[in-house]
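It is worth pausing here to work through a concrete case rather than discussing structure prediction in the abstract. The textbook approach is simple: state the sequence, then state the predicted structure, then interpret. We follow exactly that order.
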Amino acid sequence: MSPRYVAPIQLGGTRAFLNMFKNDVRWRGWDFISSKKNLYGNFEISNYYGCGSQTTCAKEESNPNNRIRGGVGAYIDIKYNSQKTDPKPGLGKIHWIQHIVNNHSIYNEYQVHTDEGTHGLRYDGLDIPISMNVNPYYDTLGTANESSFRDKSYRLDPKNPHTWFAELYLVEETAEREVTIYNGIRWGWINKVYRRKNPLPIPIPIRIPEIPKFEPIPIPIPKIPDLVCNPGSGGGGCNRTQTDGIFDNDSIENINQEISYSNIDETNWTEDFDFDINDPDWIEEQDPSVLEFENWDWTSDEEPILDENQEEDNSESPVSVPESTSALGLLALGAWGIMKAMKIRLEK
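Step two, the predicted structure:
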């Protein structure tokens, strides 16, 4: 974003400036005369700067409604200092006429004014409403008077490139509908937008659902009581194994389990819950909202919903317990002893 430098232009009006009045039906009957004599005084530029999207434009204006930000443009503040025989302010005869050319008209294709305007639609004409036909003066509705001129040229789409130029002249209405054109200046602004030739593709965000981590719940194998043998049974071996009490209530002290919450999102699957193995009511130390493992479908993403009065189904255990290798060894040893005893008897 950069304002164009202020430059003096042709005395009495450029060709484009003068042709604008000839080609506009609103100014038929008006006489625009080019002055042959330069002003003795000068134009004093108090402020002239470009406005980016983060700049408060026209911050010098006393009326806060004239300040703006978020777009692009330029602000200029000019003071007219008359000298000698120059036209004097205070008589109501000095005015400003501004001719503008830009690539973003404040009107749409139907010449209706809109707040956003129309980017890409060229405007080349007077800086007054197109419906105004009383006079061509900027100061009739704009922020200007006989001794000063202020303008805030602005567009609300900073991501689009813009060009905006103005030819500004000091004029004097010497008689009704007779205007003398004196010296003038050219000013304006440009903002350029740079984009990549080959923009990097924007990755499409893919939401990967969070999968809860499941760890196997270790259930240690209960200790199998030693094989009870009756030496007086004959045959030289044991003929009976004792399996009573492995999973009954009397052997609960032999099981060291892990307890987990039913809410997967709040579960630390490796957290051990301390409990007294000698306390027969240790399961009551859990949160009462914890669901029993046998009522959980571990292949489902949903939490099980149980009725408070629903009875537990203990017909099937959710965890299979492998056969103890020591128990199989004892069974094999017992079978071998029985076969050996039978063989001895047969030989007798």
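Step three, interpretation. The helical segments are 15-22, 325-347. Residues 325-347 form the longest helix (23 residues).
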